[in-house]
Write a structure and sequence with these properties.
Layout lengths: L10 H5 L9 E7 L5 E7 L1 H10 L3 E4 L4 E4 L8 E8 L6 E7 L21
Parallel strand pairs: 1-6
Antiparallel strand pairs: 1-2, 3-4, 5-6
Length: about 120
């Protein structure tokens, strides 16, 4: 079983994150072994801090208006290995060790299985 590794973030780093009008920022999740993009979800200031403190991804559900820890019910947990924010501070990137079947709620490894213009 993977081990949680908290990520330290300074107040300066956290203050550099820019949230939208709803207090959210997109978070891209990438597999640490393959480099494959697994999913995109949303975080607010609280879920970002909790994710970094716990070493597991915790997101904000826009549809349910509540926090959710990835894999809490499915067992498909994400263990954060590295975390970044982009040059504008308006997008996050989490490099994770994916546990279980995968990241997508459909049961696929990645949410990005549909390709424009072909199969």
């Amino acid at each position: 079983m993977p081990v949680a590794t908290p990520i330290s973030a300074s107040d300066t780093d956290l203050a550099a994150v820019r949230y939208d009008a709803k207090g959210l920022v997109p978070a891209i999740v990438q597999d640490s072994a393959s480099g494959e993009v697994l999913m995109l979800a949303w975080m607010n200031a609280t879920t970002l801090r909790r994710s970094l403190e716990t070493g597991r991804t915790i997101f904000w559900s826009r549809s349910r208006q509540e926090e959710w820890a990835k894999g809490e019910t499915s067992g498909d947990r994400q263990w954060i290995r590295r975390a970044y924010y982009d040059c504008d501070g308006d997008t996050l990137l989490f490099v994770v060790e994916q546990e279980g079947r995968g990241a997508c709620h459909t049961g696929d490894r990645t949410c990005f299985t549909r390709r424009f213009g072909g199969s």
